[in-house]
Structure formats: structure tokens, C-alpha cells
Design goal:
The protein is α/β, with parallel strands linked by helices and about 170 residues long. It folds into two domains: about 30 residues; about 130 residues, Rossmann fold, CATH 3.40.50. It is built from five helices and seven strands; from the N terminus they run H-H-E-H-E-H-E-E-H-E-E-E. Strand 4, helix 5 and strand 5 form a beta-alpha-beta unit. About 35% of the residues are buried. It binds S-adenosylmethionine. The site of S-adenosylmethionine has 22 residues, from helix 3 and strand 2. Pfam families: Methyltransf_31.
Length: about 170
């Protein structure tokens, strides 16, 4: 009987811990400009196609989530840098980077993306909600080097004309 009660207590404790962790994960989102929404596989393919990444180019993802775009860019030979504030997602990216052996190509900065160094980027990935798309447009056009390709997921920049559009992904050149 004591063993059953002990086992039940452990199960309840693990369940509560999971609930707390999931709660903290989503609570972090409340304080950020963008919630965590991962880009779907078919969209990643379109993003990578539109970006036309060449070996050795530098790619920056503004809000890199679990790092999936960084990995896709690294597979094309890029140096990929992600800016992310959610510690769970940073941890996940670091684990996958190690497992995939991409430590020399992927860098993850626990830093506010509005302080990102865009001068180093040949390609920038943006995933924005409607409310922050103008802020991204101004930020990128003010800080990136002329010629930088910007690949925007979900909403188009309000005041710039894309070079290409496919499956709700927009390609711009600064
Ligand atoms: C819509 S998700 C995109 C994730 C990833 N780029 C993808 O395409 O799968 C936005 C990410 O930005 C992060 N984020 C939101 N505000 C941020 C900020 N100010 N600085 C850095 N990261 C931020 C969130 O934690 C979230 O992971």
C-alpha cells in the first residue's frame, strides 16, 4: 500500500512539474513582442529556396524559436545566428546544435532581437505578427547593409515591394 501511495505521489509531482514548466514557457511569451509559433516544414523549404543561401554567407533569424531555420540555413553552408529570449527554446536549440554537430556554424544569442547586429547579415529571417511588421520593416531597412536579402514569413512589409512571393513568404532586398 505504501509503495502504491509513494508511486502515485511521484506521478502527481511529475505532472505538476510539467504543468508548471509549460505554464512558465507560455508566461514568457506574454512579455515578448512575438509568441512562439514554429514555422512549418513546407514553409521552411520555401524560405530556404527564396533566400538562395550561398556557402559561407551569414544568416540571422530574429526570434529563432527552436532553431529550425538556423539548422536549415546551416545545411546550406551558412553561418547562422539566432536571437532568442526564451530560455527553453535556447536550451532546445543548443541541444540540437550539439546533436547535429553544427556547433561551428550556429550561434545563439540570448539577446533582444531589436539589438541584433544586422550589419553582419547576408540574409535575415523575420516571422512577424501584423502588429509588429512595420517595426520589423523600419528596423531592418535602417540597420541592414544594402543588398541584404530579407525573407518574411506571414505578413508582408507595409511600405516595401517584395521581389518574390511564394506560399505567404516574401523576399525583399535592402
Ligand atoms: C513566431 S516565433 C518564430 C520562431 C522561428 N523563427 C521559426 O520560424 O520557427 C518568434 C520567436 O521570437 C522570440 N521572441 C519574441 N520576442 C523576442 C525578442 N524581443 N527578442 C528575441 N526573441 C524574441 C519568441 O520567443 C519566439 O521564439
Amino acid at each position: 500500500m505504501q509503495i502504491i501511495v509513494g508511486a502515485l505521489l511521484i506521478i502527481v509531482a511529475i505532472f505538476l512539474l510539467l504543468v508548471i514548466l509549460v505554464g512558465v514557457f507560455y508566461a514568457i511569451d506574454i512579455f515578448l513582442d512575438l509568441p512562439y509559433v514554429a514555422t512549418k516544414r513546407h514553409k521552411i523549404e520555401t524560405i530556404i529556396k527564396l533566400a538562395q543561401i550561398k556557402k559561407g554567407e551569414t544568416v540571422v533569424d530574429l526570434g529563432s524559436g527552436d532553431g529550425r531555420l538556423l539548422f536549415a540555413a546551416a545545411e546550406k553552408g551558412a553561418q547562422a545566428r539566432g536571437y532568442e529570449l526564451n530560455p527553453f527554446l535556447i536550451g532546445l536549440t543548443l541541444i540540437h546544435t550539439k546533436l547535429k554537430g553544427l556547433g561551428n556554424q550556429i550561434e545563439i544569442e540570448k539577446k533582444n532581437m531589436w539589438k541584433a547586429d544586422l550589419k553582419i547579415a547576408d540574409v535575415i529571417f523575420v516571422y512577424s505578427l501584423k502588429k509588429s511588421i512595420k517595426k520589423f520593416e523600419d528596423f531592418v531597412y535602417k540597420n541592414a547593409t544594402p543588398g541584404t536579402r530579407i525573407v518574411v514569413n506571414l505578413h508582408s512589409f507595409p511600405d516595401k515591394k517584395p521581389i518574390k512571393v511564394k506560399d505567404g513568404i516574401y523576399l525583399y532586398k535592402v
